[in-house]
Amino acid sequence: MRENAFRFGRARHLVGVVGLPASATDNVGVIVLNAGMVHRIGPFRLNVEMTRRLNACGYPTLRFDLSTLGDSSASAELESRPQQIRADVADAMTLLGEKSGCKGFVLVGLCSGAENAHTAACTETRTAGAIFLDGYVYRTAGFMLRHYLPRLFSPKTWRGFLARHLRNNPQLADDAPDFRHEFPQRSAIRTDLIGMLDRGLKLSFIYSGGMSQYFNHRRQFRECFGRVATHPGLSLSFLEDTDHTYILDTDRDRLLDVIEDWLLHNFPVVATSISA
Q: Domains in the chain, please, with CATH?
């Protein structure tokens, strides 16, 4: 395995690390995006461990910082953020393709990184697949029942509710800032997924237990997106005992096992020699 850092992109404003295994694949390279505002190493070095493990399996990888994140600067282009993301991912695919010979790519993103991977995968024709870690999901009637019904009969819940009610000032609560992130309409995301699958993309959705305020059962995905959930090109995993960033070694190993197995099943490695 060899790793090299590069400054690249249409304005040479992006910074990333390419990992090349001893044996390459004719199929796909893997590109890992930032998780929120976190540097390209990922939360607690998750992206580093992921890419190095995939290198050991034979997959070329690139972990990089999107425009204005980590070590990457702005491109000085007057574009919307989605347009910047698509252009940055296109530049990343070009770099990894030049260094490894890959023609197709799998995008990986956690949380907002999953949203950015979704944005790019919708239109980038070189995308072969995507792995969405705690990506788009919507609360459903089933979610509400599973979430609230057990709490209705919990003395601890009622004690907490009464304590908060007696302690809090409603007027102060009304003035509190609202930092909630608004997702696109569910129907729009469903249409996007159908489009990706119709183009032949392979999609993996992996949810953690850290998403319990939004996702609490495997069947919620079908409740959200209907028959899309049963498409043979889509897989779903729910690691309900893990946290959002997989900080524990055992949880991280479980996640990386799922990712590795999915890649090997959908994009088997064909060993070839890599030119220097």
A: 2-138+186-266 (3.40.50.1820), 141-177 (no CATH)
